[in-house]
């Protein structure tokens, strides 16, 4: 396991001043001080540092391991908390750049701090993170919501160390190695985790044809998509998600283009619903990952990220124009299973929890904190035909997901 607890040896410390030359020592000391001053002056507001107010008080560290980071509330700070990166980070997809696109509440987003009920959530300190996880590979595997989280982490780390090599390890869509730390972070794009493709009825007939299916998508529940199939052997830390595409009727229309599930190369009979296919695929992919990793590989599964369409779904004029987080009772209205538009989030989570129970995966539960943040989507600022109430502004909420991810990771490594 490369994620070792040691930080970098302070190799820059000068040799012991055994040399009689005291003046030389004084010279060296003042030179170092000067370098430190110039260095800190040259780097503006995004200097990576722990914000003292938010630092984990030592007396409360004991609580942390039993703390549920997912249970808490959003507290407004009197002023904007300095972000660890800004709108100039190149990894921010244009439509998510709410500061750059001047979203009306783009800056206010950074005023809200997540406060767990029984402990503090420490803010990820980019420099400390780079030191601690040197010589390791971290892979995000999933849909564009995992890319949103990946971009947040890359931006935080790049603000602390700009020397990177851009490349695509092990089938990744994008990736960076932080050269001074030999730390690689990659994003593997996959919508369903499993392989899928167009299917149409064969003239020779078959069990699906007999049931009247003419076309659809073949979804192989036991075959990982190629973009990430090699990732378990490459990364030391993995963070997965899937969910949005399973409930995407515009692509997988139940009548025009249904999902047709295959296992061992044969159709699952009788055909099952996407909800059941989702569980089947999850079970296979969890097993696939467990067989290809050791106990030392840290495996996370992120819970579903909620959408906040109000007044209709994404293609029916739905919008998300709020400028404040929701109140708890508003969350219940918007996400109750009675309310069709955004109800999938809880259904997906129920299956995730069921399948992940008893496996070696850690669950990163970001759903509750995110359900409250109806204000944190790009909305109209993305400049698309439809409002974006699914992805998140950057900087923004997924920075807090990463805080929770790293805090959970460190707690696990200490245990
Ligand atoms: C942690 O808090 C979340 C949000 O309130 C809750 O859904 C979950 O059940 C809690 N987890 C545990 C282990 O208590
Ligand atoms: C960089 O890290 C990898 C593990 O990710 C390790 O195998 C390799 O030896 C490291 N390279 C150096 C130069 O330390
Ligand atoms: C669904 O959510 C909307 C808010 O977008 C709310 O006005 C409505 O009452 C909710 N409907 C139900 C049945 O909960």
TrEMBL record:
It comes from the Eukaryota. Its main location: Golgi. It is a single-pass type II membrane protein. This is Trichome birefringence-like N-terminal domain-containing protein. GO terms for cellular component: Golgi membrane. PANTHER family: PROTEIN TRICHOME BIREFRINGENCE-LIKE 13, PROTEIN TRICHOME BIREFRINGENCE-LIKE 9-RELATED. The chain crosses the membrane at residues 21-42. GO terms for molecular function: xylan O-acetyltransferase activity. Residues 121-407 form the Trichome birefringence-like C-terminal domain. It comes from Zingiber officinale (Ginger). Residues 66-120 form the Trichome birefringence-like N-terminal domain. The keyword Membrane applies. The keyword Iron-sulfur does not apply. Keywords: Golgi apparatus, Membrane, Signal-anchor, Transmembrane, Transmembrane helix. The lineage of its organism: Eukaryota, Viridiplantae, Streptophyta, Embryophyta, Tracheophyta. It is found in: Golgi apparatus membrane. InterPro entries: TBL, TBL_C, TBL_N. Belongs to the PC-esterase family. TBL subfamily.
